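As promised in the previous annual report, we have extended the structural survey to additional targets. Below is the entry for Excisionase family DNA binding protein.
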Amino acid sequence: MSEGLLLTVDEAAARLRVSRWTLYCLIRSNELQSLKIRRRRLIPADAVTECIHNLMEAA
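The corresponding C-alpha cell record, generated without further manual editing, is:
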C-alpha cells in the first residue's frame, strides 16, 4: 500500500482541494469522518473517498 490509512488535516484538505477551514466544516457537519488521537485530528483515507461519493450524490 503506497498511501497511509490515516491522513492529517492538511493531507485530507489537499486531496479534496479545499481549505483547512472547509475541511473542519465538513467534519463539524458530519459529512467527513475523523478521529482524534490525543491532540491530533486524523481522517481515514477511505472517509475522504466516501465524502466525495456522498457529495456527488447530493449534487
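The chain is about 55% helix and 20% strand. Residues 31 and 51 are 6 Å apart (CA to CA). These points will be discussed at the next consortium meeting with the crystallography subgroup.
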